[in-house]
User: Fold these one by one.
Assistant:
Number 1:
Amino acid sequence: MTFGYKAITPIKLLNGVIAYRDKKISFKSLRVYLASFELVAIREAAKRTSKLKNKKERELVCFKRSELLRLTQGLTSRSLGKAIKELKNAELMQFSEKNISFNNFPIEGVGEFISKHLGGRKGSRGIPIPRKLIKLLASTNKPTLFITLIAYFLRGLSVKRATGEVNPKGTVKASWIAKAFGISLRSAKSSRAELIALDIISKDETSYQRKLNRTGSYFIINTKWGRTTRKLEFAPPYTENRTEFAPPIKRLKTTKVIKNHKTKKSENSGLKKKKIKPPNIYKFTLDELKKRDSNEKLYWEAVRLGYFKHSEANVLNWLSATVRASKFENTIPIFMGIIKKKLWQNITLDEEDRARTALNKAREFNPMIFKKVA
C-alpha cells in the first residue's frame, strides 16, 4: 500500500459511531477515538521500516497525549482527559502511555447495524482507510461530515483478495446514510456536496435517474487526497538594481543656434513615476495573493480592518488558508470565506505544514516579514 493506510474493521468504526449516535460519548471523544488509530498506525509504520532496514525493534513504545492534541486541533488538555475517560467507560478503548487497545467486539446496536445495513459485509474484515483521511476526521468539528465520510468508507473501500489492491469504488444513497446513521437527509446531501468540493469523493455524472433512485450514485474515494496539494509559492525577493545611467556628454562649446533651453509648459520635462496601488482586501487578484510582498500587505490590511488580531498563530492561519484556497479554481471567494468566518478547523495538517515551511523560507530573506507593518 503505497500511500499509507490503516486497516480498521467495521466493528471498530461502528463502535465509535453508534456510541456517539446513542449519546454514550461526545463528538470530541469520537474524534479522539479516530485520532488514536493514527497513533497506532505511526508506530506500525515505524516497526515495518525498522524491519526493512534490519534494525532492532524498540521494545518500549510511548503514546503521548500531546500527539492527540495535535491531531484533534482545538481540544484542550482537560477536554482530552475527559474524552479518554468517556471512551474507557463506554468500553471502546483503553489509553495509556505504553499501549492503546481497542474493543474488538461489537457493542450494543453494532451487530444489528452490520446485519441490516452492510449487505453481507463481514464486520471483522479490515477497511483500508487512507491515513490522511483519518487525520481529517480527527480534526473536523462537523459531526455530519464525519458520519457521512464513515458511510462512504463502509460502502466503498475494500481490498481485492486476488491482487491485494485497494478498491475505492462503490455506490450509496444519501437517504440510506440518513436513515442508517440517524441524521437528516439535508445534512447527508450537504456533507456529500462538501466531500465532492474537497475532492475526497468523485461526482456521479453518468448514471440515469432510475439507477440513482434504486441504488444511489457511483463514487470513487480519492485515496491520494492530501498529497497533490499545490504548494504556496512566494515570489523571489527583489534584488536591488545597481544599474546606473551613463553620465551626460560634456560639451565644451554651446550651440549658437539655440540659446534659450527653457522648456515650454506643454512639454514634459521628465519621466512621470507610475503610482503602484497597494492591494485591496476587498478587491485583489490571484497573483497578489500568491506573491510574498502583496500577501503580507493584505494580511496587515485584514488586521487593520478587524478581521482578527495580529499573532503568530493568525499569521500561520492566514498562510494556511492561502494554501487551502489555492487548490480550488475559485480561490479568492474560498479564501475570503475562510478568513471572514475564521474556518481554521477546515485546514488540514498538511496545508498547515506547507504554510509553515513557506513562512520559514521567506524569513530567511526577511526576518521581519509578518512581524511588523510594512
Number 2:
Amino acid sequence: MLHLDTGNTGFMILCTSLVMLMTPGLAFFYGGLVGRKNVLAIMMQSFVSMGWTTVIWYLYGYSLCFSGDWHGVIGNFHYAFLRGVGLSTPSLPNDTIPAFVFIAYQMMFAIITPALISGAFTNRVTFKAYMLFLTAWLTFVYFPFVHMVWGGGFLQQWGVKDFAGGIVVHNIAGIAALASVIYVGKRRTADRGPHSIPLVALGTGLLWFGWYGFNAGSEMRVDSVTATAFLNTDVAASFAAVTWLLVAWFNEKKPKLLGLLTGAVAGLATVTPAAGFVSPTTAVIIGCVSGVVCYYAVEMKNKLGWDDALDVWGVHGVGGFLGIVMLGIFANKAFNPEGANGLLYGDPTFLLKQVTAVVFSSVWAFAFTYAMLRIIDAFTPVKVSESHEEIGLDEAIHGEHAYEQLTDRDVIHDLVNSAHK
C-alpha cells in the first residue's frame, strides 16, 4: 500500500531528471574525445539508448530486474508492459514513493550503462551491430546484475553492498568494454581526437551534476544518509581530479585540463558503490586512490596496446572494481546503520564477499560480452569496413556531419577573399 510522502517523491523525481541528464552529458564527453569525422556516430550511440532502452525497459526490463526470482539470478515477466502497476502501487525499496517514480529512476540507470561501453569501440562498430549489442547486453548482463544486487537476488541475500552501481553499472560496463576492444581489435585509421576539449568539459560538468542524483538518489528517500552520499560524491570527484592532474603533471610535465576532467569521472565512478556507506574522510581516500590507480590503469592499457579509445576500462571498469573493494575495507555502520562494517571496522568477511562479487561480475561481463559479439558477428558484421573507417562513421553510416565540410574550392575562395581584404 502506498503511503505517499510528497517530499521523498519530489526528491526522487528530481534525482531521476538528474540521472537522465547524464546520458546527454556522456554524449558530449565522448563526442569531444573523438575526431571530427566520428562525433555524431558516438553521440548517436548514447542518445539512441535513451530511446531503445526505454522501450526494452517497458516491455520486459523492469520486470526481469524487480519481479519474481529464478535461482537468485533473474526475475520473471510478472511486470512485463508494467502490467499491474497503478497509482497506488508503492516502489519496492520505499513504500512512500509511487512505483512509477522508482521505475523511471531505475530506467535512467539502464539507459546510461550500456552507453558507457560505446566509448571503448568508437569509430569501429556498425550501427546495426550496436543496436543488437545494446539489446542483448541489457538482457543478459545488465538485467541479471540489477536483480542479483538490488532486486532480491543471491548477491543481495548474501550481503553484498553496492550503493549506486559499482558492480551494476561501472564494473560490468568497463569489463564489457575491455571484451569489446579485444574482440573488435584496433582501429585501422588513426583518429585525430580529442577534437574538442571544451566539449569534454561540458560533458564532464553535466555528468558531475547528474551524479548527485545518481548517488544521493540511491538512498530512495531524504535523510542523513542522502546528505552523506551527496557530499561524498563531490569530495571523491574533487580529490580524484586533483590527484590525476598532479600525477599526470609529474609524468607528462604539463598540467592538462583533459587529465583533470578524466580524473573527476574516475573519482565519481569509484565512489559510486560506497557513497552512502562511508564517511567523508573515506571519500577523500577513495578519491586519491582512484586518481592514482585509474591513471596507471590507463597507462598500462596503452603499453599493452589495447585500443580502448576513450579509456572506459581504465576509468569505469577499474574504478568500479576498486570502489567495491574499498567499500569492503572502509564501510562503516556509523554512517549508515543499514549498511555494513568493513575490514577496518571488524568484519573481514564483508571484504571477502565484496571481492568475490566483483570478480564474479567481471568474469560474467567479459564472457557474455565476448560471446554475444561473436554471435552478432555471425548475423551481421560487427566491425565497419576500412573504407568507412577512413571516411568517418558520421558520413559513412549516418550521412550527417557535426561541422561544416569545407571543400578545396571553399578553402581557396576564403583565401582569395582574405587576400583582397
Number 3:
Amino acid sequence: MTKSELILRLAELNPHLYQSHAEQIVDTVFEEITKALASGARVELRGFGAFSIKQRKARTGRNPRTGETVQVENKRVPFFKIGKKMHERLNGITSDSEDDMKD
C-alpha cells in the first residue's frame, strides 16, 4: 500500500472527511513520527509496533559495481519492531481473549 492509497482508504472509511483532510492527518502522523525519531525518541504504537533508531558503526564496504573498497561512515538508521497483536494477526494466531469473545 502506498501513501496515496492509505489516504484514499482513510477517506473512504471516514466519509465525513474530505480527502485533503485525510491527507493532512496522514502527513501529520508521519511527520510527528519522523520528528520523534530525529530527536532520539522511541515511538510505540501499541498492537502495531515500535519505531526506534539504531546506530551503525563505521565499516569498510565494497562498491558493488567496481569491487573497490570504500569507507562507510557511522550512521543512524530507523528500526521497526513488530507488535504482538500484529505478529499474531499476520501469523493467524488468535489469543484466548479473542476466542472467548467468539463464544
Number 4:
Amino acid sequence: MTPLERAFREERAQVVATLARRLGDLQLAEDAVSDAFAAAAATWPAAGVPDRPGAWLTTTAWRKALDVLRRDRSAPGVAVEATMPPAPEPGLRDEDDLLQLVLTCCHPALAIDARVALTLRHVAGLSVPEIAAGFLVPEETMAKRLVRARTKIRQSRISFELPEPEVLGERLASVQAVLYLVFTEGHLASGDGPAVRIELCDEAIWLTRQVQRLLPDDCETTGLLALMLLQHSRAEARHDGAGRLVPFAEQDRSRWDARAIAEARELLATTGRGRVGQYQIQAAIAALHAAAPTTEEINWPRIADLYGLLDRVAASPVVTVNRAVAVGRADGPRAGIALLLPVLEESRLAAYAPLHAAYADLLERAGDDAGATAAWRRAAELSRNPAEQAALERRAARAPRARPPFRHAKGPHRRK
C-alpha cells in the first residue's frame, strides 16, 4: 500500500468529517477532500510525504473549500474568512467529528437506502460506481439517491453536531442497523452476480471497527463487530472450487479464519455490562457454532435458549424462524415445526426463502420427504441469488422420496 493509499484509508473519513461539521455542507466537504487528495498525488512523490498526512490533507482541503466559496460569492472582494469558522489546526484529530459524520449519514430521518449510500460514500470513501455495483443498481440511480439524501440533510437542517446523550442511543441503533445491512448484503448478496461480495463485508467490518473504536464502552457495537467477524470467518469455506455455495454443515472447518474467531471471542468477553442487546446475543450464538469441533457437537440446547432470549429482546418473525431451527435440533423436528407453523400461516414472510428452507429441513428430518422436497423447491423459487437458488435446488433433488408424510404434532415437545 502506497503512502497515499494508506492516507486515503486511514485519514480520509476524519478529514471529511472535520470539514463537513465546520462547513455544514457534506458535498462541499467531499469535493474539497477529493481535491486535496489530487493535490497530494501531484505533490507528495516529489516533495515527500508529510510527517502528519492527516493535518496536511485537512489544511489543504480547507483551503480548497474556501476557494470554492470565494468563487461562489456574488459580490466580489467579500472577505470569506471573516464569515467562516477558524481553519482547523494542523494535526488536530477531533474524533467527535468522525462519530458525528457517521451519525449524520445514518440519521433516522433518512430512508434506509439513503443511509447506506451516504455511509459508504462519505465515511467508507467508496465511489458511486462501486456502491452501485455492490447493490446492483444503475450508477445514475445511486448518484440521484446520494443527491436526494444530501438535499434532505440540508433542507431538514440535520445537525453535524453530536446529539445529547439521551438521544445518542437511538441514533446509534440506526448506525448499527445500517452497518449490519451492508454486511448482510455482502454475506449473501441479492440479485445476479456472486453469492458473496467480500468487498461489502470488508467495508462493513471496517466501518464497525471505526465506530467501536470511538465508542469502546458501547457493548452492542462491540457485539456487532464480533458477530460480523464470526460470520465472515467462514467466507473461504462457504464456496467450493466451482463457486457453488457449501451448506454450513458441509463446510471444511479448517478453512475458517481462526484469528477472526479468536478476536471475536475476545471482544465478546468485554461485553455483558448493562442491558444485553440483540447483536451481543447473535454473536454469542455464532460463537457457539464456531466453538464446536464438528457440526454434530454444536450445543443446540444452549443455542435454542439464546434464541429464546433474542425473541424476548428483539422479537420478529425472522428470529422465530431461526429459533425454530435451533429448537428442532435440540428438541426434535416436531418441536421446531410447532414453532414455525404460526409464521407459515401468516403472510409477512411468505416470500422469505429462509423460512421455507427451515421448514424443508425440519420436514426432512421428521420424515415428510414429499413435503420437504416441495418446501426446498419453494425456497429455491424465492431465493434472490442464483448461487443460493442452485444450492436449494440441489437439496430438493437430494431429498429422499420413500418415507410416508409426516403428521404435524399439535404442540412442541419440551426438553426435559
